[in-house]
Amino acid sequence: MVYLPEKESLLKPEHKEEMKARARNIVLEVAYDGTAYHGFQRQTPPVVAVANVLEDKLQTIFGDSIELAAAGRTDAGVHAYGQVVNFFTNGSIPVERIARAANSLLPSDIVVKCAAEGSKAFSARHSAKKKTYLYRIYQGETPDPMQARYAWYIRPRLDIDAMRTALTFVLGTHDFSSFRAAGGALMNPVRTMEEAKLITEANDIKVKITGTGFLYHMVRNLIGTLVNVGFGKLTPMDFEGIMKARDRQLASATAPACGLYLMEVTYDEKPFSR
User: Which range of residues forms the domain containing residue 107?
Assistant: First the structure.
């Protein structure tokens, strides 16, 4: 099987070099409520993505064109607490003033948490070593309207122990073809998961997964299958068998976007002081 390389920037090589020739490489950590946006990646108007809004406001602040590179291309309706982006600029605003200046212009559902200057070699996407996603499920006799945009509501009680057992099969290096998006490009499906755990807090179920990389829709497809373990429609061993089969048709439907959060991106080069 021949796999395509991971998608590169849509910029032409000469344009990328022109951008890198600029004086500064600015790195931002960004949080957003993805409900109103068609994902993170820049879209052609009138479709609006998080990047469209963020680039527009940054251009006002820096006085030159801004083209963001992002650690993760979150889907429509997916949220982030720890998205990381970088861009090259000749703008002179001090780094310690960037977050406040950006937040004064941005809508309330997009926030720049912090800013730093990276080395010229730093890329929010290609320098990333691992990412952490969180998926939230809300349980209760009735839906909570305050959770509707931020969690998947499931009324029937889920079997938490069975779900935890199934999650153990995710750990390690595996071919995750069963959880890739149907009809997606043939990227290498082998990924390494370093953490996969389920946390319960009152009516909240949180699934936290950390890995070196993720396929398109992988987390949401995995969660959809995991929930069927919780319903008793699948056993943990069925879950393992679906993973090993490397067949998307055997896995369950994709979980809703509203419950998914990009929590953190980890780098060897620490862009932000904590």
Answer: 13-126
